[in-house]
Amino acid sequence: MEAIPPASDTKPEAPNSAARPNYTIAVLCHLLGLTLFLGIPLANIIAPLVLWLLTRNNDPFVDRCGKEAVNFQLSISLYLVLAGVLIFAFVGVILLPALMIFHIIVTLVAAFQASEGNAYRYPLTLRFLR
Fold this sequence. Notes:
It contains 4 helices and no strands. The protein is an all-alpha fold. The protein is elongated and about 50 Å long.
C-alpha cells in the first residue's frame, strides 16, 4: 500500500488586498453626504471631505469617489441655499423638497454603485475639484 502524504498546514495566500480598491471607504464617502439631515451645518461637505483627504492617496478608486462626493455635496448645498432664497418667490416651496429627495436618491445610487466597484458620476454637479 502506498502512503498518503500528510495534509499541509499552510493556507493558500490571500489575494493582495492593496491591489483591490477599498469599496467600503468609497461607499462611506458617498453616504456621509447624508449627514446634511442630522442638522449639523456643513456636515454633508466636511465629513466626506475629511474622509477623502485622509484616504485619497491610498486608493485611486477612493480618490475618484471622494472627489465626486465632495463636488456633489458642494453643488447640492449651493442649490439648496438658492432654493431657500427662492421660497420668497414661492418657487422654492416646490424646489426645496424636490432637491432634498433628489439628494437622497442620487446619494444612495452612488453608494450602491461604489459598493459594486463602479465610479458614479452625479448629475447636475459642478466640478469644483478635478
